[in-house]
Amino acid sequence: MGIPSRTLQYGIFRPHGHAARAGVAAGEHVLDLAALAREGLLPAGEELFSRPSLNAFLARGREVWQECHARLRELVDGGDLPVDTVFPLAEVEPLLPFEVADYVDFYSSLEHATNAGRIFRPQDDPLPPNWRHLPVGYHGRAGTVVVSGTPIVRPCGQFWRQGQAAPEYLPSERVDIELELGVVIGTPSEHGTPVPVERALEHVFGLVLLNDWSARDVQGWETVPLGPFLGKSFATSIGAWITPLEDLMERRVPGAAQDPQPLDYLRTEPMVFDLDLSVSLRSAAMAERGEPPREIVRTSARNVYWSMEQQIAHLTANGASLRTGDLIGSGTISGPERSERGSLLELSWNGEEPFELDGERRSYLQDGDEVILSGDLLSDVSGRIVPSH
Amino acid sequence: MGIPSRTLQYGIFRPHGHAARAGVAAGEHVLDLAALAREGLLPAGEELFSRPSLNAFLARGREVWQECHARLRELVDGGDLPVDTVFPLAEVEPLLPFEVADYVDFYSSLEHATNAGRIFRPQDDPLPPNWRHLPVGYHGRAGTVVVSGTPIVRPCGQFWRQGQAAPEYLPSERVDIELELGVVIGTPSEHGTPVPVERALEHVFGLVLLNDWSARDVQGWETVPLGPFLGKSFATSIGAWITPLEDLMERRVPGAAQDPQPLDYLRTEPMVFDLDLSVSLRSAAMAERGEPPREIVRTSARNVYWSMEQQIAHLTANGASLRTGDLIGSGTISGPERSERGSLLELSWNGEEPFELDGERRSYLQDGDEVILSGDLLSDVSGRIVPSH
Lengths: 389, 389
Hints:
The structure is a homodimer. Chain A is α+β, with helices and mostly antiparallel strands.
C-alpha cells in the first residue's frame, strides 16, 4: 500500500496483542519498524527496533538515522509495503518514545522571560542580568516526562495564599501550561569535554512539542533560592512521535540578532525554526456540548533568542556530558503580541486579566480542561486535567 | 574463608578478566554475588547480580534485600565461602553502583543554609522564608554522577570576575566540595500518588556519601532566577559501596525539634543518623612529599533539619513518582562549629578567611588537590582535581 506523506515521525507503539516496538508515523498510518527490519527492508537490524524505547536507535548516530530515513521514505513513496507492517495511526497506542536520560529546561524566549520578569519582579529590570549573556536553564524531573494523552492529575503542593497566616498543602489553584519545543539527543558526548557550538547539531536526533505543566502557586513559594522544583516536577508532556531533524532543516532560519555578542563558546549565527505553533483548550463544558477545542495561542518557534546549538554548547560548557535520551526544552515560547503568549501566566497576566473561553472565564486550568499543543511538522501534545485524589 | 566484618556494602565491580557484576564489600574483601547466586548460595537468582548495575536488585524491594542480606551475613560469619567467590577489595575496580534515575539535591542543614545565606545575601535574613516550612531542593544532573575515585576535571564556565567589564568563559576559580549523604531509592512509587511520610522508608535501599562538587563563581552568576545549573552539573561523586539501611537503623536518632511544626504531609518525628563525617584534603605538594591527607572538617550527619522521610514525602507531594535508582542528596551538612563546615565556601567564608593546609593557604581547590569524604559505616568518596583541558 502507498502512503503519501511529507513527514515521517519516530515513536514507540504497541500493536494490538504485540509487544511494544518502534514505529514511524506517516500520515494516517504507522509502519512497524521491527517487522520491516525482520523482513530485511531496513538497513539496520531488528534488535534496534523491537524494544520499548527508541534509545538504541538514537544512540547509533546520524549515518544510521539518515540511511533508515531515506529507506523508509522510499518504502512509503514506493507504496510497496507488506500489509502486516502497517497499522492505522488511529488504532495504535503510542507510548513514551524514548527513555528520558536528563531533562533540562531553558528559558530562551525573550518575550516570555520579559513577561515573567514583569509579572514576578515588577520592581526590577524584567530580564535578570545574566539573561543576554547565557541561556538560563535548570534541570527538571526526567522520571515524570509522559507521552501525549496521559491525564494530568492536578498536583497538590505547599503554597501561601494571600491573606492566610501560614502556608498550606492544597491542590494547586494555578495549574498552567508552557508551550515549548523539546530537543531529543541521540548520540552522547564525552564527560569532561564541552561540545563546540558548531558541532552541537550532530547530537540532535529530532524535535517534539513539549508542555511543561506548571503549578504557579507552588513554584512561587518554593523557588528562592534554588529554583523551580515541585511546581514543575509533577508532569511534563511530550509528543508521541519525534520529527527527525532531517525533515526540519529546511525550516531553519536566522534568529534575532544577539546583543551583546555572546562569548566565543556561544558564538554562531543563531538559527531558529520557522514553525507555527498553537495552543488549544477545551473545557469540560465544551466537551459535553460536543464542541471542538478552541485556539487560545498562536505563535512561532522563531520566537527563541538562544538557539538549540547555543543551548547544547552551554549545557556542556562545564564538561557535563550528553547522554542518549537527554531532553532539552526551549523554555516557553511567546511572541510579542498578546495572542502569542505561550503560558496562561502571561495570557491572563497571573490572573489579573482573565480571558474568555466560550462564555467561561479562565486564568488557570480547571479540572476537565483539555490542552492541545500543535505545530507545523510536529506531533500534537494533549493532556487533560483530572482532579487531585 | 572467614571474613569478620560488621558492615556489608553493595556495589558493582569488575573482577580482572570478567564482566561487571554485583558484589558486597565486607572488610578487606569483596564477595561476588553473581557467583554466589550461581552456586545456589543466595535466595535470589543470578540474573539479579550478573549486570553492570544494582538496579534490578534495588527494584525487588525490602523482602528480597533482607533475605539476601541475612544470608550474606551468615555466609560471611560462617566463613564457608568458595574461594573463587571472594576477591581482595584492594584489587577490584569498583564501578558506579547503580544507574542514577533522577538526582535531587536538598538544602536541609540549618547551619549550612544559614552560612550560605549570610555569605550570599548578607543584607537579608539568612534563611529564605520557605526554609522552615519545607525542605528546599532542586534537580541536579543524573548523567554526571560518578563513582568515588573518578578524576574531576576543573570545569570551565561563564562568570563575572570582580572589576571586569563583562562576564568571561574561564576555568572556574572557586571549585568547592559539599559534604552530603545520598539516599539510594530502591522501589518506585506510583506517578500521581504522593508517598506518605510514614511510608517513605520503605522505598530506601541505603546510603552513600556524596560530594556535590560546585563551581561557586559559575553558580553565582547563573543562579537567578532558576537556580544552580552548570555550577553543579559537571560532576557529583558518590561512594562505590552502598550501605543498606538495614545496617544503619541502629544509628537513627531523633533530630532537632522543628519550629514551626511542619504541615501534616511532613509531620513526623524527624529522625537523623548519628554518623561521624569528615573531609580530608591532600594537595599535590603533600602527595609529592608522601604525606597523608589532612582532615579539614569533622561533623555529624545529625546536623540535618529535614529528615530523609520528610524529603521523600515532600519530593512526591505533588504526585511526582520515585524510580529505582533515584538519588537524593541531603544538602551540605555543616555543624555549628567552624571545624564542622561541610564546604570550603563556609570554611573560607567565600575566600575571606583562607585556611592553612600544611603551610599552604586554601580558599578553594587547586589542581592536584585530592578530597576524601569519610563517614562511620559508609564507603569513602575521593576525587582529585585535574586541570581544565
